[in-house]
């Protein structure tokens, strides 16, 4: 369902993109346009000043305190302007109004393209971001980089893994599936043994669907400036739909919406036996499914081809500097501090999942025992997943819109006999039409 705030966001972004497309064909920004040359971040830190950061991520409170301690002349105001669509609407409205925009904004990877294509966020390459590529894992870095431009710094990541209820699997003598074919068989065995148990839940989720297509090798989206391709008929997408269709046809997935009270209950009582989701999930288990502590474990994501180790990202966000920021050098300095080095390590220590290679390879990180998962060193699974994420994935430059109509199109496959492939075709056509209406050149 598209909310009022989402509609406002789409209208605002569409207006900016339409103007930008007409004037520039939405090409990558050039650091020279902002005065040329490297920005003097060090001098800005020595001089000091005030910056405002819009973000909802709780570990940034520690980062702000540490940053202000290291740079006492800098004052950082951390503002929670809402999550997701709510913040994006407020951010776009501030940009359009020409006042009130923050110096730093948290933006999820799937939404960053809309702000980049509208040139609402600064190209950070000239501030030093171009040299940060080796510090980050492949998936998050590719999500913030467009051609030679870097529109944000990765703050966290969501390499996928299979969370499974070991207690349920052991009771029914089921091996942890290593392929998706084995996963379907496990679903059948579980549901036959106890009709109240489902291998997972699914009522249609854009992020989950695109992540599994990503893992299967599908690349439905391509974007180069104003030229966009949307095609859900490639081999990877067909691999995903043929397998997932079996689960839907045989009623092997619970018709329960994720993040609902019923969902948490299913995870707690074992009637939902697995989740294929990002590495940021453990904290949600601990806080939302406390009664099942010790029952769950983490395993690598099942493979579409036996013997492979392919993975994908699910979720994650970045820190961007709006074009309207008043103190861009200080803003970049804060973003860099929060996403690399001391800031990143502090966030990881409070439960954030890193996008930095150094933190992923840290012995302390890898050997952290998770009491919730029976003492398992789950970060080893997550780190392996991060290293195996396919690096050539891209989102649409208007992915926020595309995701908002997922349930209006693909959703039919979850409540009727409409095949999943037809649902994806309807989503494709809706995305193509919208893009062309906004001035993009969209084809299949």
**Poorly predicted segments:** 1-38
Number of helices: 21
**Major sheet size, sense and barrel closure:** 5 strands, mixed
CA-based shape: globular
Structural class: alpha/beta
Please name the fourth-level CATH homologous superfamily of the largest domain: Periplasmic binding protein-like II
Q: Span from first to last CA? A: 25 Å
What is the name of the CATH class of the largest domain?
Answer: Alpha Beta
Mean pLDDT: 90
Question: How would you sum up this structure, described in words?
Answer:
With 444 residues, this protein is α/β, with parallel strands linked by helices. It is 45% helix and 13% strand. The chain has two domains: 4-157 and 315-360, D-Maltodextrin-Binding Protein, domain 2 (3-Layer(aba) Sandwich), CATH 3.40.190.10; 160-312 and 393-443, D-Maltodextrin-Binding Protein, domain 2, CATH 3.40.190. It contains 21 helices and 15 strands. The chain has a five-stranded mixed β-sheet with strand order 2-1-3-14-6, with helices on both faces. α2 crosses α13, α3 (60-70) runs antiparallel to α14 (341-349) and α9 crosses α10 (235-249). The longest helix has 21 residues, at 4-24. It is globular, with a radius of gyration of 22 Å.
Short description:
The chain has two domains: about 5-155 and about 315-360, D-Maltodextrin-Binding Protein, domain 2 (3-Layer(aba) Sandwich); about 160-310 and about 395-444, 3-Layer(aba) Sandwich (D-Maltodextrin-Binding Protein, domain 2), CATH 3.40.190.10. The chain contains 21 helices and 15 strands. The chain has about 450 residues and is of the alpha/beta class.
